[in-house]
TrEMBL record:
Its EC number is 2.4.2.1. The keyword Transferase applies. Keywords: Glycosyltransferase, Transferase. The purine nucleoside phosphorylases catalyze the phosphorolytic breakdown of the N-glycosidic bond in the beta-(deoxy)ribonucleoside molecules, with the formation of the corresponding free purine bases and pentose-1-phosphate. InterPro entries: Nucleoside_phosphorylase_d, Nucleoside_phosphorylase_sf, Pur_Nuc_Pase_Ino/Guo-sp, Purine_phosphorylase. This is Purine nucleoside phosphorylase. GO terms for cellular component: cytoplasm. GO terms for biological process: nucleoside metabolic process. Residues 21-268 form the Nucleoside phosphorylase domain.
């Protein structure tokens, strides 16, 4: 795998991706951050050697290099999911490539459903911990020990210093920022009423279909990472309505400006 990663990184370096400092992964419906980026280079995923290709209609599938708040950034506009038929190794391949390009911090966003009914759609949740329900690990492959420690410690997978900065930024900007546990499931089907009850019992505050694999690999690479969920719907099993994907995407777009404030203000401090 390292040979493929090096090949991909060399291609991007030749395209002008010069020593990015921060990597950013944008979740479903979350693309407005790019309005803040002084874009230098954009490359479609299907042009990048060894890269997966985004297949979800609201994930555009571009890797973007530019500057944001004076820092060089590489932004994934569209991520990969197990439910698209990709392996966990595929899903996390871009994290390894961004690390090979030189990033020192990783910021992750996602759209998720609120299991904790004290949380409302349109609000944000800082992920403090997670539950992996994707049925596998992006580190479960032969030769992983050649790329980092096999038995990665996950006692504190989200960077404490950056999390604290995000709390302070939220307070300074009067942003309601919940904090909690994110459960990552395979999907693509949404959860049943019984599954929502189960997720609440095991300690989840929000649920989605991404993020955890990338966090695991970031920890494998000893890459400090934070993640913020935009809560797009409320998962109340006693009052569950049929899912409305366009409404979820619309809610993500409405809530995104607040997330952008968190990320841009954090980047200023890094």
């Amino acid at each position: 795998m390292q040979q493929f990663i090096n090949q991909t990184a060399d291609y991007l370096k030749d395209k002008g991706f010069d020593a990015p400092e921060i990597g950013i992964i944008l979740g479903t419906g979350l693309g407005q951050l790019l309005d803040k980026v002084d874009i230098i280079k954009t490359v479609s995923y299907n042009h990048i050697p060894n890269f997966p290709t985004a297949t979800v209609e609201f994930h555009t599938g571009k890797l973007i290099y530019g500057t944001l708040e004076g820092k060089k950034v590489v932004v994934m506009e569209g991520r990969f999911h197990v439910y698209e038929g990709y392996s966990l190794t595929d899903v996390t391949y871009p994290v390894r490539v961004m690390h090979a390009l030189g990033i020192k911090k990783l910021l992750v966003s996602n759209a998720s459903g609120a299991i904790n009914l004290d949380f409302k759609k349109g609000e944000l949740m800082l992920i403090d911990d997670h539950i992996n329900l994707q049925g596998g690990s992006p580190l479960a492959f032969k030769g992983v020990e050649q790329m980092g420690e096999r038995f990665v410690d996950m006692s504190a997978p989200y960077d404490k210093a950056m999390n604290q900065k995000l709390r302070e930024i939220a307070k300074e900007n009067n942003i309601k920022l919940h904090e909690g546990v994110y459960a990552s499931v395979v999907g693509p089907q949404l959860e049943t009423r019984a599954e929502y009850r189960y997720l609440k019992i095991i300690g989840a505050d929000a649920v989605g279909m991404s993020t955890v694999p990338e966090i695991i690999v970031a920890n494998h690479l000893k890459l400090p990472v934070v993640a913020v969920s935009v809560l797009t719907d409320e998962c109340d099993p006693d009052n569950l309505e049929p899912v409305n994907i366009p409404e979820i995407i619309e809610m993500a777009g409405k809530a995104e400006p607040v997330m952008i404030t968190l990320f841009t203000e954090l980047i200023k401090t890094l």
